[in-house]
């Protein structure tokens, strides 16, 4: 499955880069088979709400397994965060193209979870261990899943996580650096989001040209990097970038801008940083 191509419009929110479509609302019904069935659904609703799974997921095959894993792990914060990301992978990323079973999941399901969904939902933190923790939790879950339902995903997923780990760690360091550069006080208790946002907007508004897109790093030289816009294939040179944290092939999602008279472009705001393999799962909408 291919991911939609997203961009930021300067508000910090993600928007699908596609023509506006008429609003469609899909409704599904579920008939209880008695009081016990109703009680079981309410219990599952309570459990799944603890890791923010959307209601639509309650009617899908995976909800029973995610709820069972939550019962097993209890209130552990790392497992809970992992389940939050996995649930969003199903309900938000796959949307209405959800597989019918764990057996029906293709290898691309796990690749997109690792290379697209996790980086998009990764939390900014001072310890910067989110990648290591997520990959460890993923391996633990898949091993448990194989034992529970009889699948055989563990060896493949383990291979994916081992390969992705160095890249995800680098992506995590870069997005943390860029976010802190934009919001220097983000980790302080007295962080004033509105104040720092206003300062960032002022710099944003001084630019005569702003482009919101996903860019692939083509070259790194000192603090200058060359990137290619995945939408237009145009190249841009960005100044004042932390080259020690950037590798060729990496994908940067966000805004770049240039003031009148500038030769180099500047990075304005980041929405996501993805490993090179994520490019295989992006589709550019018309």
Strand arrangement within the widest β-sheet reads: 6-5-4-7-8
The percent range for strand residues is 15-25%
**Low-pLDDT segments:** 1-20
Q: Could you report the average pLDDT, rounded to the nearest whole number?
A: 88
Counting structural domains, the number is 2
- Provide the succession of SSEs: EEEHHHHHHHEEEEEE
Measured distance between first and last alpha carbons: 17 Å
**Tally of DSSP helical segments:** 7
**What share of the residues lie within helices?**
40-55%
Query: Describe the biggest sheet?
Result: 5 strands, antiparallel
Using only CA atoms, what is the Rg?
A: 21 Å
Describe the 3D structure.
The protein is α+β, with helices and mostly antiparallel strands. The chain folds into two domains: 35-179, no CATH class; 185-283, OB fold (Dihydrolipoamide Acetyltransferase, E2P) (Beta Barrel). It has helices at 35-49, 62-73, 77-93, 107-121, 130-149, 154-182, 193-205; strands spanning 3-4, 6-8, 14-16, 209-221, 224-229, 235-238, 251-258, 266-274, 282-283. The strands form three sheets. It has a five-stranded antiparallel β-sheet. A two-stranded parallel sheet has the order 1-9. Helix 5 packs antiparallel against helix 6 (154-182). The longest helix has 29 residues, at 154-182.
Feature tags:
alpha+beta, single chain, 7 helices, OB fold (Dihydrolipoamide Acetyltransferase, E2P), 286 residues, 42% helix, disordered N terminus, 9 strands, five-stranded antiparallel beta sheet
């Amino acid at each position: 499955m291919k991911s939609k191509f997203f961009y930021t419009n300067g508000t910090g929110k993600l928007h699908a880069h596609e023509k506006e479509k008429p609003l469609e609302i899909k409704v599904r019904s579920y008939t209880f088979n008695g009081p016990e069935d109703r009680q079981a659904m309410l219990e599952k609703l309570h459990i799944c709400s603890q890791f923010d799974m959307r209601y639509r997921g309650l009617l899908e095959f995976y909800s029973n397994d995610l709820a069972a894993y939550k019962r097993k792990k209890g209130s552990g914060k790392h497992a809970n965060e992992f389940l939050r990301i996995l649930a969003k992978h199903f309900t938000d990323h796959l949307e209405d193209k959800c597989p019918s079973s764990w057996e029906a999941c293709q290898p691309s399901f796990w690749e997109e979870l690792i290379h697209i969904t996790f980086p998009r939902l990764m939390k900014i933190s001072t310890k910067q261990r989110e990648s290591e923790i997520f990959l460890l939790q993923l391996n633990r879950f898949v091993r448990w899943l194989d034992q529970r339902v009889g699948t055989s995903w563990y060896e493949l997923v383990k291979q994916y996580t081992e390969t992705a780990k160095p890249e995800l760690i680098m992506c995590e360091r870069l997005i943390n650096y860029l976010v802190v550069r934009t919001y220097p006080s983000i980790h302080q208790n007295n962080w004033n989001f509105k104040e720092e946002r206003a300062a960032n907007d002022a710099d944003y508004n001084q630019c005569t040209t702003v482009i919101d897109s996903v860019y692939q790093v083509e070259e790194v030289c000192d603090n200058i990097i060359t990137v290619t816009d995945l939408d237009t294939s145009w190249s841009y040179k960005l100044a004042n970038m932390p080259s020690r944290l950037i590798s060729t092939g990496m994908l940067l999602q966000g805004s770049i801008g240039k003031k009148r008279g500038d030769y180099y472009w500047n990075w304005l705001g980041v929405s996501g940083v993805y490993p090179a393999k994520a490019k295989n799962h992006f589709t550019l909408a018309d």
